[in-house]
Amino acid sequence: MENIRCFFIISTLFVKLQGEFSNHDEDPISPNYTTLWDQLKLQTNPYLQDLQGHWSFNDTIDISKYEEFDHTRFQGSSELSMERMLDRMKEQERAERRRWESSKATQSPEEMPVFDTTLVTNVTSQLGATAFLHCRVKNLKNREVAWVRMRDWHILTLGMLTFSNDDRFRVQHLTDSDDWILMIKYVQKRDEGAYRCQVTTDAEPLTHVFNLLVAVPTADILGTSEIHIGQGSAISLVCVIENSPTPPLFVMWYHNDRMINYEEGESQLVQVVTEPGREKTHSQLLIPRASPRHSGKYSCKASNSEPDSVHVFVSTGSGSCGGLLPGNGPNSL
What we know:
The chain is of the alpha+beta class. The protein has four helices and 21 strands. The protein has a six-stranded mixed beta sheet, with no helix packed on it. Strand 16 (251-255) and strand 17 (258-259) form a beta hairpin. The longest helix has 24 residues, at 82-105. It is elongated, with a radius of gyration of 36 Å. The protein starts with a helix and ends in an 18-residue tail after the last strand.
């Protein structure tokens, strides 16, 4: 029981010291058993001096050695107080830091990697496209560049290796080039966020942060969601594609979920005119003479946008409500 008690005395002391250090945020220290033993062995008790190197191995405790510990040899010894123990360990940590700072200061700026900060760090990519985050590091020498996704701190790449099951992520780098480009294919909305280009040095990691914004194009058919016209009137619908950094190559129109842009036999009855724009793309669907069979749901969408829909009702008999159609008003092309 005494041997077990001695084990818990040492362990309790270690845990208490960790608690003491955590309360000093302005001077954080990470104690370990070796640091603790370095202070214990300084005590005047010769028995502790004899035990130096006998208990620890690779900063771990050999519990079997506690069976050989003679706790009676501890009695009457001059032991350090908790406050003095804390002060000594802080002094030791500060000395280590001074040595580290001194070695860091000896490195000339010419020897340290340098990021090219002139490159774009706020990148916008369209949904479904390929995004490129361009990181340039000069004076890299034999160090390696890593790309880290900051949302979950996942290391995506290290050097030319990829550490992701998602094969959409790749790094592009040419031999003797300073460029390390993170490529994300078929960009999804969940890819949006911050990414870190990182270089590990002897002192501390050097980082350069990039922000990826994923633009999701939207489709909007002008006018109301329901349109009523009479037989023989024209159906004119205008669809606007927005939030698309690259104008869409095509805008598809559907009648009851069937694409009608190039439907055979309808070339004289259905006309589609699309005008790409820098900020907005307009597409007009025109049916010059509507009949009841043209009633139903009409939808438009770009290849990477959600569709928008309206319902058209073509009634028989005299009278026309064509004025309700967006294509007949100031919004027409």
